[in-house]
């Protein structure tokens, strides 16, 4: 029997709560399937580790997880440590060297969940946002000089490479082609950003020629926020830069009912390195330790992990279990207006996995 080796990195805050729940669910899915097993190694990296060792993960941390089949990640972010230290020291320290350049963020209004958009009941909002995850505005290029003096200056340079833009466009057109509507929106800001975004647009046109069966359009990012709210049914697959997609996907998560539901996959499509799956939310300092974090975003992320591992039946079964549970308001956590606790949702999903007759 195939055993998948999973590296679990809960991180900080509610990251630990939801990843522990995710590991339980994963074990249940494997048991129900019977065709594969999962072996989970847990790595206690993050804020507490930083306080002890002065860094977010050990120096050889990546070597410890390089040969795992996938990574389940919680959140990097600790109340006592600056956010740029936790983010660059852990999450980006894995994403960037492992070349997880395609960040995929599906958004749907799950059964039982209410969108803040009053005209949306479900089918009108079914998107996948593809975020460029290796360069652009978050390339880390820049500097700061003369700190504290009136001459102080700082730059964050958005760096786009032809290779980087081509590969994310190809990935996004390919993903759009695999979905029923074969419809892609390329988000840009080439009116104001007249160098890299103009190249981005040109490369979109070039790559589009390889995908004649995909219908596509181009949209400025500011106008895109309006379209997401006013005409959500006109959108299917979306590709955007690191910064633009970061913002648009939080909006998407909110429009789908809660940040606590939204999943994401950081993919290295060539499989030279393990890919990483995580809820899109952060450490949620305001609710950490209370046992009320919504674990659905993590469970949906494990669905994406199972798809990536090549276990579509198990992935489908888990997604069906998740939707059965969200449909029942007794299992809504406070972010969804309910009173359920993380463990209630977890137990309900595990029961639904075992009861699933697909
Ligand atoms: P956040 O996602 O942690 O929280 C935003 C709001 O959403 C909070 O009110 C929170 O309670 C709520 N929320 C988020 N997830 C929830 C869940 N699963 N269930 C119920 N409610 C949920 O964003 P923030 O407050 O801006 O950031 C807090 C910390 O997390 C910061 O240190 C930030 O840098 C970090 N962060 C990390 C990641 C990551 O590692 N991928 C992502 C975002 C934020
Ligand atoms: Mn974000």
What do you see in this structure?
This protein is α/β, with parallel strands linked by helices and 358 residues long. The protein starts with a strand and ends with a helix. The strands form two sheets. Strands 2-1-3-12-11-4-5-10-8-9 form a ten-stranded mixed β-sheet, sandwiched between helices. The chain has a two-stranded antiparallel ribbon with strand order 6-7. The chain has two domains: 1-108 and 261-358, Isopropylmalate Dehydrogenase (3-Layer(aba) Sandwich); 115-256, Isopropylmalate Dehydrogenase, CATH 3.40.718.10. It is globular. It has helices at 14-33, 47-53, 61-65, 83-95, 162-178, 196-208, 221-230, 242-255, 296-309, 312-326, 342-355, and strands at residues 2-11, 36-42, 70-75, 102-108, 126-132, 136-145, 153-159, 183-188, 215-220, 237-240, 263-267, 275-279. Bound molecules: nicotinamide-adenine-dinucleotide (NAD) and manganese (II) ion (MN). Manganese (II) ion (MN) is lined by residues 246, 250.
**Strands, total number:** 12
* Major beta sheet, strand line-up: 2-1-3-12-11-4-5-10-8-9
Corresponding CATH architecture of the largest domain: 3-Layer(aba) Sandwich
Poorly predicted tracts of residues: none
Q: Which small compounds were modeled alongside the protein?
A: nicotinamide-adenine-dinucleotide, manganese (II) ion
Bulk shape: globular
List SSEs in N-to-C order: EHEHHEHEEEEHEHEHEHEEHHH
Main sheet specs: 10 strands, mixed
Class by SSE composition = alpha/beta
Give the oligomer, counting copies of the same chain as homo and different chains as hetero: single chain
Q: Please give the alpha-carbon distance between the first and last residues.
A: 21 Å
User: CATH topology of the largest domain, anyone?
Assistant: Isopropylmalate Dehydrogenase
Helix content: 25-40%
Mean pLDDT: 96
Name given to the CATH homologous superfamily of the largest domain: Isopropylmalate Dehydrogenase
